[in-house]
Amino acid sequence: MTRLLLDANFPAPAARKLREAGHDVIEGAHECQAWPDERVLGRAVAEDRWLVTFDRDYGDLVFKRRLPAPPVIVLLREAHYRPAEPAEWLLPLFESAHEQVGRFLVVSRDKVRWRALLAAI
Question: How far apart are CA 86 and CA 116, in angstroms?
Fold first, then answer.
């Protein structure tokens, strides 16, 4: 089981699919909708959750502003997708979750790139 904080822009059908797969999911659309990105990031850090988002601003927060980072940040980079599809991109990552810790992952339908979050410290 992976602990996730899904940013407010994450589709509900994909969140449901992740929850059904046994992951501990907090949906930002319900709990953090009007929060600034810094507060969402802080909650992910405080609760030791992966932060999953379509928002590139989190990269700026951890790499440029050097704010503390959660175990993993996943930036999803697809403009068009079916509502449940983002879960399909994420599920394979959880099979090697321990290898992802400390990474800023950029995930698309057919590709995963990463950068070490430790570089932000």
Answer: 22
Express each pLDDT in 61-73 by its tens digit. 999 999 999 999 9
Contact between residue 30 and residue 51 where contact means Cβ atoms under 8 Å apart: no
| Total of domains in the chain | 1
- Confidence at residue 31, expressed as pLDDT on a 0 to 100 scale: 78
CA distance 79 to 76: 9
Query: For residue 17, what are the domain limits?
Result: 3-120
Provide CB contacts within 8 A for 57, sequence distance 6+. 37
* pTM greater than 0.90 (yes/no): yes
